[in-house]
Design goal:
The complex is a heterodimer of chains A (537) and B (311). With 537 residues, chain A is mainly alpha-helical. Chain A contains 23 helices and eight strands. Chain B is 64% helix and 1% strand. Chain B is elongated, with a radius of gyration of 26 Å. The chains are: A mainly alpha (537), B mainly alpha (311).
Chain lengths: 537, 311
């Protein structure tokens, strides 16, 4: 029996210590075959009582940030004071020149028409759960803005609505800021241009920059670790070089072509920066890159500078200071090697971070040209420098569009031109391109696995994408037909790896995920057949 | 009475324009933000704009001359302004109510502009109104005025109805939202009633505007019509103080955010602007930010919080 009840905005301030939202499996958006069978719906692990006792898990059935419960009333009061202080700072030029203008516009012009709601995959997949409506979070923020920043009185409350400011509301808002993938599909549909994704982003920023509160996976073991040792994977330069050497050897053996990755080549045309997660989790991806670039005669190098070998920039999702620091490290690595350009490997958020957002951070000599690997690879494939045999990729392939690379950067066609050239059984997901849906792992979710958060991520945030994947392969779900879900983004691949495994779609339906370069190498005539190994990893 | 009406019409117009300008200037003077565009961007080359692509799809894009598809941008802009394209595409049920409301307002604004133009022409060339052009303009004014009133009222009534009957909209609607729509309905309704039922021989819309321009206080505006005009004037003055001024905000959300894909070139104006922002001294309190009010954004961005030292 569903416990779905209408949730009101005022519930955010409830002091009963209970979650205000709940998602029952039966409320979720139905999935197509083979997941239309209730027997294949995984149960949702309840949040353990210890977590509920220790942390502020009072929003819904999960907990992403794990904010400890304040021990005293005074501590609660102080946290609320910090929050209000940060809220003020969000609307000042000195503290937030980076996003002040779009934030003001989104605060002051929403017509509350709810057009955005139907565009949100989380809201739809949850069975239209009120707390996941894009405007639910935004409306709370908007009311706080008019009440606490603009100091509106009764007339303002009448015009804009009121909100009760207390610690439970702040604690729930912290969690709610981490129930949005920041994919900005909602913003794309807003007739006025209001951006709920930006509001979630700014809330995360307030919590991080003022209160020091952020999901540990993106701050402590994310951007801080990257700035400390060079990579959020924890790999130092020495370790990453060892790993790449191993990958080169493996790739050489698998392909029959000797692969050697160049390191720290001064004056190289291309500085390639991978998401270092690839090196650990999907070594065939950096191996394939090395093979392709060498075979195409590209002058390229990797960098062993701090952060120069890991393109991730988690600051993009929650903290401007951390964002700028990492972007500068990337540019400094390129400047030191005097390369012609930085090329970003298969990582969506790294694309957007360094190419788009950092464009107004990097100045002078740090403003080094940045390019997507999609365009470089497209040029290589189109040039005929590689001998490609599409019949080697004679299996169904579909393409996932990473939001950061596509809707938020406009790199849509290069990857398609490649796939059309080398994959005869390519089929699009619907919708695709700039209208795509997020994989459900965006904005850090793919690496967040505390408590039972993965259950939420697979049941709710990833559900719409899962539906798209199943529909794309709807004509060939039989396990005798291997299928390839191409996701040219490390975080998206992480989400697919975990979600496909969660629903057993490799074992039972032979849906494999992987990157784009693997398909290219798999089609290279000079390479030993079978670069793509049809086994789970 | 007529003097008071004229004074209120003028004052409201001044407040409306001044508040709109202040709001627009406020947004325009906000600092240039980090890039946050959203594709498709319509001023991209038309073949790219069709699939939502950007110049990032070109290798070595920074070596290519910048391309600005003015026609694409204008087409997208006017399609959105005139036909509320996004609403039609993503929220058709609301569009059926919002579109007539907006078109009605556009027609009423057109009517006011035509009346002002005609009044000025009539003051300086009294014979103009009796010529064929004057008669045509007069008929156009009547058509836009009546059409505008009907459409705006139908739209406003439809929007109020939807806000009150749709549970999703009702939850997020404030009393102010309902008041705003009802205010349009009442103000325009009183104008319509005042105009329709004005006594024979009383001045029409053009007569009142000419009277206003010449400050002819001998004109006797019928009470109901005067009340309607007064309410409409107050409403016009009120709009820029509410989210209904999204006609201002929308310019910036589209041009300065969604479609702002300007490239920061070395030595260019963007870089010079950024240089100023990097001297700002933030006061964020979290220790890892290392902002103490005396350190600039440049200092903070080049500080590694895990090393404890600059760089």
């Amino acid at each position: 029996m569903s416990r779905k009840t209408r949730i009101d905005l005022s519930d955010m301030s409830r002091r009963d210590g209970e979650p205000i939202g709940h998602v029952d499996l039966q409320d979720l958006m139905p999935l197509p075959a083979p997941l239309d069978d209730p027997a294949r719906e995984r149960p949702w692990t309840p949040l353990n009582p210890q977590a509920r006792a220790r942390y502020e898990c009072i929003l819904d059935d999960t907990c992403a940030v794990s904010v400890p419960k304040p021990a005293t009333k005074e501590e609660e009061t102080e946290l609320v004071r910090q929050f209000l202080s940060g809220l003020d700072k969000l609307f000042t030029r000195e503290n937030n020149w980076t996003f002040l203008q779009p934030l003001l516009l989104s605060m002051e012009h929403c017509a509350r028409c709810q057009t955005c709601a139907d565009a949100c995959h989380i809201y739809e997949a949850s069975g239209r759960n009120e707390i996941y409506r894009p405007t639910y979070r935004s409306e709370i923020m908007r009311r706080l803005y008019f009440k606490c920043v603009k100091h509106g009185g009764m007339i303002s409350a009448w015009q804009h609505g009121d909100v009760d400011v207390n610690w439970p509301m702040v604690a729930r808002l912290i969690e709610l800021a981490y129930r949005c993938n920041l994919c900005r599909r909602c913003a794309q549909t807003c007739p006025i241009g209001v951006d709920n994704g930006l509001i979630a982003h700014e809330l995360r920023k307030l919590f991080s920059q003022e209160m020091g509160i952020a999901a540990k996976e993106i701050h402590d073991t994310g951007s801080m670790l990257q700035l400390k040792v060079g990579s959020s994977t924890g790999m130092s330069a020495e370790v990453v070089k060892d790993n790449i050497q191993f990958i080169d050897e493996e790739t050489s053996e698998r392909t029959g072509i000797t692969v050697e990755t160049p390191w720290d080549v001064e004056g190289a045309e291309v500085l390639l920066i991978h998401n270092a997660g690839e090196i650990l989790a999907w070594p065939e991806n950096p191996g394939a890159f090395a093979l392709i670039l060498n075979a195409a005669g590209i002058s390229w190098t990797l960098s062993s500078e701090l952060a120069g070998y890991d393109s991730i920039n988690y600051g993009l999702w929650y903290d401007d200071a951390q964002f700028a620091r990492v972007a500068i490290k990337h540019a400094e690595a390129a400047k030191k090697l005097k390369v012609g350009k930085i090329v970003l490997g298969e990582c969506g958020h790294a694309h957007k971070a360094l190419s788009v957002i950092a464009d107004r951070v990097l100045t002078g000599e740090l403003n080094i040209p940045r390019e997507s690997s999609m365009t470089l690879l497209r040029d290589i494939v189109a040039s005929g420098r590689l001998k490609l045999d599409p019949s080697r990729n004679d299996f169904p392939v579909t393409l996932h569009d990473p939001c950061n690379m596509v809707r938020l950067m406009g790199v849509v066609e290069p990857q398609r031109e490649i796939i059309r050239a080398i994959c005869p059984k390519f089929r699009e997901m619907e919708p695709h391109g700039v209208d795509n849906y997020c994989c459900g792992g965006g904005s850090g979710f793919a690496i967040m696995s505390g408590h039972n958060f993965p259950d939420w991520r697979f049941h709710v945030s990833g559900r719409k994408k899962l539906e798209q994947v199943l529909n794309a392969f709807g004509d060939c779900l039989d396990p005798s037909i291997p299928k390839y879900l191409c996701a040219p983004c490390s975080n998206c691949k992480g989400q697919f790896r975990d979600m496909l495994a969660y629903y057993d779609l490799w074992e039972k339906n032979r849906i494999l995920y992987g990157g784009l370069v693997e398909l290219i190498v798999n089609a290279m005539s000079e390479v030993k057949p079978g670069f793509i190994e049809w086994e789970w990893h | 009475m007529t003097t008071l009406l004229y004074a209120m019409l003028c004052l409201s117009a001044v407040v409306c324009v001044a508040a709109t300008v202040v709001r627009a200037v406020g947004y325009a003077r906000a600092p240039m933000h980090l890039r946050w565009e959203l594709y498709p961007v319509p001023h991209e080359a038309s073949d790219r704009a069709a699939h939502g692509g950007s110049y990032f799809e070109d290798s070595n894009w920074w070596t290519k001359p910048p391309h600005f598809n003015l026609r694409g941008e204008l087409t997208a802009m006017f399609t959105e302004m005139l036909f509320l394209k996004a609403l039609r595409e993503f929220n058709l049920r609301l569009w059926w109510r919002s579109f007539p409301f907006h078109v009605g307002l556009y027609l009423l604004i057109t009517t006011v502009a035509l009346l002002l133009g005609t009044a000025v022409a009539t003051v300086f060339v009294p014979a103009w109104m009796t010529g064929w052009l004057g008669r045509v303009v007069y008929q156009v004014c009547r058509a836009t005025g009546v059409g505008g009133l009907v459409l705006a009222m139908v739209g406003a009534a439809g929007l109020v109805h939807r806000r009150l009957t749709d549970s999703d909209l009702r939850m997020y609607s404030t009393p102010g939202d309902i008041f705003n729509l009802v205010a349009f309905l009442v103000a325009l309704g009183v104008v319509a009633a005042g105009y329709a039922f004005r006594p024979a021989g009383s001045p029409g819309a053009l007569g009142i505007v000419i009277g206003l321009l010449t400050w002819d206080t001998t004109i006797r505006v019928p009470g109901l019509l005067a009340a309607g005009l007064l309410l409409s004037a107050l409403l016009a003055a009120y709009v820029p103080f509410t989210h209904m001024s999204h006609f201002v905000g929308k310019y910036f959300t589209y041009h300065a955010v969604r479609w702002d894909d300007r490239v920061n070139r070395r030595g260019g104006t963007i870089e010079r602007t950024l240089a100023e922002y990097l001297t700002y001294r933030p006061t964020w309190s979290a220790p890892h930010v290392t902002a103490d009010g005396s350190r600039s954004w440049a200092d903070i961005a080049t500080t590694n919080p895990t090393k404890g030292t600059k760089r």
